[in-house]
Amino acid sequence: MTDDGPDDQPGPSRQRDVYMQGLADVTPDLPVRYEGLEAAALEALDDDAAGYVAGGAGGEETMTANREAFREWRIVPRMLRDVAERDRSVELLGRELSAPFLLAPIGVLSIVHADAETAVAEAAADLDLPMVLSTASSVRLEDVAATLDDAGGRGWFQLYWSSDRAITESMVERAEEADFEALVVTVDTPLLSWRERDIADAYLPFLDGEGIANYLSDPAFLDRLDADPAENELAAVREFVDIFGDPSLTWDDLAWLTDLTDLPVVVKGVLHPDDARAAMDSGADGVVVSNHGGRQVDRAIPALEALPDVVDRVGEDGAVLFDSGIRRGADALVALALGADAVLLGRPYVYGLALDGADGVRAVCENVLADFDLTLGLAGQRSAAGLDRSVLRKREG
Asked: Looking at residue 271, which CATH number applies to its domain?
């Protein structure tokens, strides 16, 4: 258990701070309800950026299904179980996390806020939440790692697998040298999906030079160019588009990658239990059950629906993380009870970033952590790591 007293735990602490400020007629700067947060952020962003961040594949049915899947599960609270002190910590890849949350890899954050990934790193470090940095970052991975290190934070690096193997090798080597703790390999994006909002706006931020800082600073990528990117940015952007993904990859290639690095490798974008098993057999240390937040395959299975079967198939052989649809503390509790070791928070923190930079990210994450802490206790549970399916009931009818 934690050594914190009940008043020092995030739920009561956050409530107390907000209510005390209310005595002076001060209310939270950011909308607390997710729906209000999303609406305010999308209003603040320009139309292209709003469509890119909020949109999904096709008719966006997968995005809707992700949320509907949570409504199929009900929490069964238990009473009089001494929940005065709650332990939110979990063990993941051999290291302890103070709470079962990471910040999901989301690229091109410069279209959301000028401070981009640097602001996210600052907030994540303040709250002791690992940040998973996207390959498609607007800030070089070395600079984000330095920000995390200066603030005592922790980082994982998410890899988009280039069709140029030399670039993939270089990115992995750079992540190792920058002291990222793990490699998250996204496998559900060998091609970009048909995203109707972006197509209607004829908008792809990479073509404006956004989100490609890691490529423009990568020696293997630069070797492909005939001129300095500063002299011919358009040529560099076109080269990036040509080599971004690789639809020819197989599980044999994953085995090559896991042999390439000493970092733990987590495979992100897994929905089928056989794929989870294949990832483990290829040397992965874990998987992220995810449908990319509904951004890749329209009508794909909701990520939460896929979670229990993947957990059962992986067993004790590796870690299982979850993303796609986490909006509140109760969502996280459901995913953990279904077997996830931790969850990744995505769009909510991006909307906080849009509204108030690092302070916005911090406020959103503090709210989610407080909500989770209170929901854990009110469900009669003392430990995040101790959650299991007995906490839940499937909705009937």
From this structure: 3.20.20.70
